[in-house]
Sequence to fold (718 residues):
Amino acid sequence: MKKILLAMALGAVLGLLDGSSAWFSPDARDKMGSIILWSALKDVTAGFLIGVVAALVRSKVAVVFWGLLVGLGLAFLVAMEPDPDTGKHYYLAIMLPGGLVGLLVGYFTARYGGGVVRRRAATVT
Amino acid sequence: MDETTRMPRTGSPFPPTRASVVQGVRSDDPETRKRAYTTLVESYWRPVYTYVRLQWRRDAEQAQDLTQEFLARVVEKEFLGTYEPGRSRLRTFVRTCLDRLVQNADRDARRLKRGGGFEIRSLDFGSVEGELSRLDPPDPNQGEAFFEREWIRGFFGSVVEELRLECEESGKQIHFQLFERYDLEEAGATYESLARDFELSSNDVTNRLAYARRTFRRIALERLRTLTGDEAEFRAEARTLLGVDVS
Amino acid sequence: MRWLSDRTVERLRAAGSEIDLTHTRYRLIEPIGRGGMGTVYLVEDPALDRRVALKVLDLPDAGGELTARLIQEARVLARLEHPGIVPVHDVGELEDGRVFYTMKFVRGDRLDRWVRSGVSLRQRLVVFRRLCEAVAFAHAQRVLHRDLKPQNIMVGAFGEVLVMDWGVAKILRNLDEEPTLRMTPEASPESLSARSPGASPQTRHGTVLGTPGYMPPEQARGESAQLDERADVYALGAVLAFLLGGRAAAEMGARSASKPRWGRGVPRALRAVAEMAMRAEPAERYRGADELAAEVDRFLEGRPVMAHPESILLRAGRFLWKHRIAVILLLVYAIVRALVLLAERP
Ligand SMILES: Nc1ncnc2c1ncn2[C@@H]1O[C@H](COP(=O)(O)OP(=O)(O)O)[C@@H](O)[C@H]1O
Fold:
């Protein structure tokens, strides 16, 4: 539970940051509100998916890799929607940071989130 | 046993004096003094003689004279007066004095005096002579070790003797005989063979041997106390003689 | 008088030194060690079918002081039930009046031999930590060891630590009360040589006990009435120095109360910890073995130790190093993010 919450919180923070970086790109500046909202929503979802796995799987590498996959996957869904103004797809510009955010969430959760949920057999004393 | 090999005893099987001979010889009471000297002479004459014979390579006659002379000195009041317990072991002190005496006797072949207040009964040098051949020739540089070994040999010899007397007096001859067979004889009996030979249960053998050894140890410690200068030396000597070697 | 051959003399020595266990429940197996006041034997307890160690005085003790000391040691051990302190089983008396006690037979290596078997710094520190815990426990029971040194510490096969030789331990009472035990000098060859004239002054508090190099200055001065937990802290510091320097530091141990001389490659922070524990002034040392243990913990966890305060920069560096992967990942993300933004610009 702790891990899932941690991962979702990380997702929220990183999603907000990631979204806010759109401010630097002039043509996106007027849509800041929705960009930040969607970005945060996407990464909280990613955090949830990563957190659940991190709580069950002991291997750090597996969790990090899963984070990368989730980040890429969700970013892909977002990138499938073309830009309403230009009609272009920004696959690279969305998926690259998205994947990295997933990876970061995965790493932080695995490294700083404590142990995994213990198997039932192990809790019998 | 030859009467002459026995040093004068007071008739009691117990050590002639319980207190250290070092204190004994300084006593004002002539009886105490005499007992202390007796103990000293008794436990030192054999190693002294053997040492002069083998370490200093003197012939039997010279060695006898030197031994007599040395013992006469020991009996003089000043001899132990210079001994300070704590500085060295009494045994080492005695040996150092002996070395000096032999060296001086070399230099001025003056007449050796005998006696000196106390009569030293005739010592059975002959019996010691017979044993010398059984000893390894000493290393010229290991005088102290040689003297110590001979001293210990004599010491244990007198402890065994006292054990025998004590066992006889308390009607425990069998205990002593078991000890003799098991611990003294070179061949070394086993508990089983002893039980057979003495028609005892093996439990009896165990208990009696344990008694004899316990008594042996007690006598040895009592005697050692009289032959050492102070508590520290006593403990150190007890470790040397009866301590366990732990590798 | 009977003439005894060399072999017979040897047999008699053996017969005279063998302990007589006839009226005890134990059977002799072999001698295993010799200390200042007695010998330790491995014996069997047939009733419980186990082997135990039996420590017995070398000599019947007329004055009773050594006897009192041995019994006191057994009682101290009985009071200190802790996995790091050897458990005592039984106290008794041999036929000849010598007092003994039995305790768990410890299989393992003495600390000084153990370090030579090539153990890592971390392993050494973990063992040292356990040692501190055991001593802290004793302190909580108001017992000072007063003779902690590598020779008195055993390390088991699984790294468990057992503190031995509580023969000169002191039970602390209320502040103004005299110590319960008055100790006597030992006449063992070792302690005689260790106590060369003038080397260790004695005072009316009693004889100096302890081992040069592991003994704090106040103990060397014989101020036994004033000793407190910090005397053991000093000894622990010396043991730590020994563990860090192996052989060399043991030799440094001969010069009491001097600063350890360090070999190369000993972490600064650990040096500072050992030196703080070994300060001449008790007030400047750690207040207890638990504080010392906490310091070692801090070092093991990569946190700064109290004895060696660090500048902000060093601390930041240590923090970044500890979390280096996270830092690198964040940097990579930031760079990628920036590159993506730049690429989007017309
Ligand atoms: N319980 C034990 N198990 C195994 N060996 C022991 C035990 N107690 C003591 N020893 C060994 O015996 C030696 C002497 O014991 P120690 O208690 O230090 O004697 P002392 O207190 O007289 O100095 C130690 O160095 C150790 O090797």
Q: What stands out?
A: The mean pLDDT of chain C is 81.
